[in-house]
Specification:
195 residues, alpha+beta, Butyryl-CoA Dehydrogenase, subunit A, domain 3, six-stranded antiparallel β-sheet, 6 strands
Length: 195
């Protein structure tokens, strides 16, 4: 018996779980202000901050990260199960559940990061780089009774898990596209043999 496997789904499930594991220890995006004066380590799975070398997180962000950890794990595992069972009646339901999660996490992360940088630029009149380095001058908002500004070197970069998340999302979409083609070959009647 020739078992059909959605190879895109198999690799997508593995890469999704690898992204999850690496993201527990490394952020998708990192921002450093000054010489480790303030740090932002951001990802949908593990977001925390650093001030003078001390790490801290906000409980609401921690809860959001925990829910994303569970979704990523479920997505990767369900995608692996689907990859070995693409011809079952419920396979499309498994695929529909799993292929969207990495894509939605990636898009929401990029949009959220962009919105935060735009808000910082508008509210604090600061142009943080999303990638690269820049000398940034920070002026205090009008409601703070301090005149003056602070200037610091700000460095931002996208880290390895971000690029792997793009690969995982792309592979998940490829698995979804390949599902239709794979099922056509499964459902096609065998060619009749002539004697």
């Amino acid at each position: 018996m020739n078992r059909k496997i959605n190879w895109f789904g198999l690799v997508a499930g593995i890469v999704t779980l690898v992204v999850l594991l690496i993201s527990l220890f490394m952020p998708w995006w990192q921002l450093t202000v000054g010489n480790n004066f303030f740090n932002v380590y951001s990802s949908p799975i593990n977001t925390n901050f650093g001030l003078y070398g001390s790490q801290f997180t906000i409980p609401l962000i921690w809860a959001w990260n925990l829910s994303n950890i569970l979704l990523f794990a479920a997505s990767g595992i369900v995608m692996l199960i689907y990859a070995f069972l693409p011809a079952k009646k419920y396979s499309k339901d498994l695929l529909t559940f799993s292929y969207k999660k990495p894509l939605y996490a990636l898009l929401s992360f990029i949009i959220g990061l962009f919105v935060i940088v735009v808000i910082a630029a508008g509210f604090f009149k600061v142009d943080f780089p999303m990638m690269g380095s820049a000398n940034v001058s920070f002026s205090f908002p009008s409601f703070i009774p301090i005149n003056g500004s602070i200037s610091a070197l700000v460095t931002a970069s996208f880290m390895l898990p971000f690029w792997l998340a793009i690969v995982a999302a792309t592979l998940c979409i490829a698995a979804r596209l390949y599902h239709g083609r794979l099922n056509k070959t499964i459902m096609a009647p065998p060619a009749s043999k002539e004697n």
